[in-house]
Specification:
146 residues; alpha+beta; Lipocalin; 2 helices; 8 strands; 53% strand
């Protein structure tokens, strides 16, 4: 039995469509990230992701602006299985208007769609004997940030 050419063509298009949707979304670009820590506290930052696994974090909290211009810090991102990924890098959160809390920020999440990532976050302070803070985050691709 011979398969009609139209059936073969339709099957080929269906396979190409499935492969296109199976690819992981593009991480490169600018992401606005909102963090909610479980013990309380909200933080806002921007992540600028480059195609080679590198990027930068920039704190966007209003409290940080009391210190003047916010500095960006080098960060890295890696892909996991499926649509999962990790962003990590050093950051300094403002403590009120009197101090800074330096440490390592790690965000583990999954793409909800090509322009939205949600997941869990951990902040490990680099000063003092305090434990890590845990919470959740949502990252949204910035307008024009593709």
């Amino acid at each position: 039995m011979q398969t009609p050419p139209l059936t073969l063509c339709a099957l080929a298009q269906l396979c190409c469509f499935a492969l296109a949707h199976a690819q992981s979304p593009n991480i490169s670009g600018t992401w606005n990230i909102e963090i909610s820590f479980g013990a309380g506290g909200q933080r806002s930052l921007r992540f600028d992701a480059q195609a080679d696994g590198k990027g930068t974090f920039a704190l966007m909290d209003p409290n940080a602006k009391a210190w003047g211009a916010t500095n960006s810090s080098d960060a890295k991102w890696t892909r996991g299985g499926g649509n999962s990924l990790t962003f990590a890098g050093p950051i300094e959160f403002a403590i009120g208007n009197v101090g800074r809390d330096p440490g390592m920020l790690t965000l583990n999440g999954k793409f909800e769609n090509p322009d939205s990532i949600t997941g869990v976050v951990e902040f490990s302070p680099s000063v003092g004997a305090r434990g890590s803070k845990h919470g959740t985050f949502k990252a949204v691709r910035a307008a024009g940030g593709k």
